[in-house]
Design brief:
540 residues, alpha+beta, six-stranded mixed β-sheet, five-stranded mixed β-sheet, 16 strands, extended
Length: 540
């Protein structure tokens, strides 16, 4: 990527003096610095540089004083007029304002890049105005938009400060968070139309789009919309045809998506084929001015292979707000649009839930020619069943991978079972047989054992072991999960949902277990009364 950036940077032309001079003219705001006493005020104009003194109060109540010219009393941040050049400016008190005033302006520069490509450079110009009327200008280029004909896509480069290297550099992607660089509005330097005319963008129809942009907006905002149009056209050449056809709503959608839309098949030639709809629907598309909701509905109709009524079209539009075209494609393999919309409408089901159910039913390998599977009587129950099957399949695949990675868990089972298992009354404690049982234990009891590799890794390397507590009359039913150290010290023990049913019984069982098994452990390690009494255990 760095080589691509270097290659693009080599094609950048230097900024001309005329452009530099033009950027200075972007700052039209003037300032009138003043310092006043009780009677006089000294004023300096930032535009013409003149410095003069005016009387702001009569010298006395004498007869001669009534002929004195009294100037308006300058006030900080109020508007005023320079007596010398007549320019309007904002009064700034030299006493109240300690630091220089910094103004910013944004602008674009269009340049050719290759035979038919162009680059749009985005600048921020800063003007620092001091009290002694000195103006310091700083030109910062923060982004470049490469509109490339041969590669048929748009590339954006951003000028970023790299804190690790301590310098500015160009990246081919933006940065996130608070430091995200925004390409906003701005004025465009003259000559951009000649640049466009000498590139492939001359066929974009941008001038027609410019006329449509409302004059109620500022020139900077209109410029940004025009650039958005050029970007969208570079990614979707169909935009020019869509604009000429008056499909305003579709045009807005394409511009908003920067030309990267799934509503258009760019490989087709005819407009109805590009829109993936039946030809007889083109009049409806024109009538709705390219309403994207109707286009999506007509695309669903095309998928179904049959013409559908206007009422069904309306139902499809209602449902399409929650699902994708791929979901429609999956469902329509097994039913018709009418049956599907009637089923959802009649049973008042959530649309996304039904299509999610169909997708999972298909992924789980069911014969979808069975109408019972396509239209279940109880969608909530059927959806829940598919979720459980999907999770079980994921757990099975995860278990296969983890059994290979942590194979020692199964290898150690016979040894640990013989050495560390224990029975008393109706309870038995033993190690897990393998990773599969460990994952099933966590899934069934709804705690984190088996959800991550943490406990698998510990058991595999022998730092701690995962044991299970079962009832003799229900040996296969998960009851409690226990984490034990090699010296029989119990770290934590939890049942379903991280709770502790039959607390006293299990507590006494575990205390008895450690006392019976830990023959070589010091007596102080066997005093667990305080340990069991506290409820500040780590979550499984």
């Amino acid at each position: 990527m760095k080589e691509d950036i270097k290659e693009r940077t080599k094609r950048i032309k230097p900024i001309s003096e005329a452009f530099e001079k033009w950027t200075r003219s972007l700052f039209t705001k003037n300032y009138l610095w003043f310092c006043k006493s009780k009677t006089f005020a000294a004023i300096r104009c930032s535009k013409c540089g003149a410095e003069y003194t005016v009387r702001i109060k009569k010298s006395s109540e004498s007869y001669e004083a009534q002929f004195e010219k009294i100037h308006e009393n300058p006030c900080h941040n109020k508007e005023g007029v320079c007596d010398r050049c007549g320019a309007t400016g904002q009064y700034k008190s030299s006493e109240k304002l300690k630091n220089p005033i910094v103004d910013k302006a944004h602008c674009y520069l269009f340049q050719k890049s290759g035979k038919t490509d162009i680059v749009i450079r985005y600048f921020i110009i800063e003007r620092e105005c001091t009290k002694n009327l000195q103006q310091v200008f700083d030109t910062n280029e923060i982004a470049r938009i490469w509109i490339q004909d041969e590669k048929k896509h748009v590339q954006k480069d951003f000028h970023v400060y790299n804190p690790y290297l301590g310098k500015n550099e160009w990246w081919d992607h933006n940065i996130g968070g608070m430091n995200n660089i925004s390409i906003g509005t701005g004025l465009i330097y003259k000559g951009y139309k000649n640049v466009i005319q000498n590139s492939f963008l001359k066929y974009s129809g941008y001038e027609l789009y410019q006329k449509e942009i409302t004059l109620m907006e500022s020139q900077e905002s209109r410029n940004r919309k025009m650039i958005d149009y050029l970007i969208a056209y570079a990614n979707c050449r169909e935009l020019e045809m869509i604009q000429k056809m008056g499909l305003v709503n579709l045009k807005r959608h394409i511009i908003c998506k920067e030309g990267k839309t799934s509503l258009i098949n760019k490989k087709k030639k005819k407009i109805h084929e590009k829109l993936m709809i039946n030809q007889y629907r083109m009049q409806d598309v024109i009538r709705t001015r390219g309403n994207t909701k109707f286009i999506k509905a007509y695309q669903v109709e095309k998928m179904s292979g049959t013409k559908i009524s206007e009422e069904t079209i309306k139902e499809v539009i209602k449902l399409s707000g929650f699902i994708t075209q791929n979901d429609w494609k999956t469902a329509l393999k097994y039913t018709t649009i009418e049956k599907l919309t009637n089923y959802i409408h009649k049973n008042k089901y959530h649309t996304y839930q039904y299509f999610d159910y169909i997708r999972m039913r298909e992924e789980n390998g069911y014969d979808m020619s069975n109408s019972v599977y396509v239209f279940p009587k109880n969608l909530n129950r059927a959806h829940k069943l598919m979720v459980e099957e999907a999770n079980a399949r994921k757990n099975e695949e995860f278990a296969k991978t983890m059994n290979v990675k942590y194979s020692k868990i199964a290898e150690k089972y016979e040894y640990l079972n013989k050495k560390m298992s224990y029975k008393k009354g109706n309870l038995i404690i033993r190690p897990v047989m393998d990773v599969t049982e460990l994952i099933k234990e966590g899934h069934t009891l709804h705690h984190c054992v088996g959800a991550t590799e943490n406990y698998m890794m510990k058991h595999d390397e022998g730092s701690t072991y995962i044991f299970v507590i079962r009832k003799n009359n229900e040996p296969e039913k998960p009851y409690y999960t226990v984490e034990i150290e090699p010296n029989y010290k119990i770290r934590q023990w939890y049942g379903n949902m991280d709770k502790k049913p039959d607390y006293e019984e299990i507590r006494e069982f575990l205390i008895d277990y450690t006392r019976k098994k830990a023959k070589n452990v010091e007596q102080k390690n066997l005093k667990y009364d305080d340990y069991w009494a506290t409820k500040k255990h780590n979550a499984m």
